Amino acid sequence: MLTSPVRESPSAADPAPWPAYRPFAVVVRRILPLSPHLVRVTFAGDDLRHLGTTGLDQRIKLVLPLPDGTLPDLGEHDEAALRAGDWYARWRALPEPARPAFRTYTVRSARPERRELDVDLVRHDPDPAAGDGPAARWLRGASVGDRLIIVGPDGRTADPTIGCDWRPGAARHLLLAGDETALPAICSIIESLPEGVTAQAFIEVPSSADIQNVVARGASRIAWLARDAGCETSQGFEAVAPHGELLQRAVRAWLPRHTAELASVVRAAPEPLDDVDVDVELLWDSPVDPTTGDFYAWIAGEAATVKALRRHLVSDLGVARSNVAFMGYWRRGRSEAQ
Ligand SMILES: Cc1cc2nc3c(=O)[nH]c(=O)nc-3n(C[C@H](O)[C@H](O)[C@H](O)COP(=O)(O)OP(=O)(O)OC[C@H]3O[C@@H](n4cnc5c(N)ncnc54)[C@H](O)[C@@H]3O)c2cc1C
Q: 38 C-alpha vs ligand 1 centroid, how far in Å?
């Protein structure tokens, strides 16, 4: 659900245009557990009236408080600093112990007129080797009234689509696939689809209790894949399916049954792919130009799974790279900062 931001007409006296991304001072207004592994946090802040978001897969950064609960000044209260667009330079200039971590999330719902923003965060287990990341740690102890900084788009900038990777163009056949970290984006996208397009979404979640009550309109469908249903593997039946296994199997099974929908975007010779080492590099391949053709795929989540699906679509099936957006949202055993 998204409502329009309160916009102000640009004035001739404006000293500089508003930057695309800027820091917003926020506090936690509500914490609502949605399911065993998903928590909806509602942030509030007076400046959120200027938040510019088109919904969909709009990404933002949560700047997390330091262990003592404090936050640095990233210019969020100073109009000249906001217009200068230098929050990142300010962050980098901080000495290491005073530099807070930030992590990337998706706007699940924005209500600029109420100065509110919802983010659905995954409550993920600590990594066996690396332990908790800063966002997971913060979520574990989060309470109403906590102060954070959110870096997000300002509604007064020229490009309202900044920070969105969902660009299906005129495609009428859509494939969305992702794990629980992509669930907020997929649900927002599914809820916003116009008439005349049909989407098949596959969402892998930790347990059947994490399935959300989201309605897909028309002929669009959401298939929920719960890892706690288990699956047969080469090691025998595993009571909890390995992360990404169900998603890969479901997408690979769906594609051959929808070749007619893919036909307009299949190349005679598959386009070459760089061999991204997801342990070292970020996997991010999101076509910038509005897509042509009648099929568009959007795949996000754990990077190794995303990489395997990308290879299958582009190299095995010959789908044009311009018609697929692949985003490794997180990497097993690696923090977002690495
Ligand atoms: C564009 C974009 C949008 C995103 N939207 C959302 C969103 O709306 N909701 C959401 O919950 N996440 C979202 N994510 C993913 C989120 O940014 C990562 O999960 C992030 O790594 C969490 O930070 P952390 O501090 O908990 O862990 P980090 O410090 O980054 O990593 C610490 C350890 O935790 C592991 N880890 C990180 N995430 C997970 C996970 N989900 N499950 C299991 N282990 C994990 C890492 O492999 C690492 O070993 C998004 C990411 C991107 C790039």
A: 12
Q: Is 286's C-beta closer than 6 angstroms to any atom of ligand 1?
A: no
Q: Are 154 and 43 in contact (CB under 8 A)?
A: no
197-206 residue pLDDT tens: 999 999 999 9
Q: How far is the CA of 13 from the centre of ligand 1 (A)?
A: 42
Model pTM?
Answer: 0.94
Question: Is the C-beta atom of 135 inside 6 A of ligand 1?
Answer: yes
Domain 21-153 homologous superfamily, CATH:
Translation factors (2.40.30.10)
Predicted pLDDT of residue 1: 42
Per residue in 171-186, pLDDT tens? 999 999 999 999 999 9
Q: CATH fold of 173-330, please?
A: Rossmann fold (3.40.50)
331 lines ligand 1 (CB under 6 A): yes
Provide the residue ranges of all domains of the chain, joining segments of one domain with +: 21-153, 173-330
Do the beta carbons of residue 26 and residue 150 sit within 8 Å?
yes
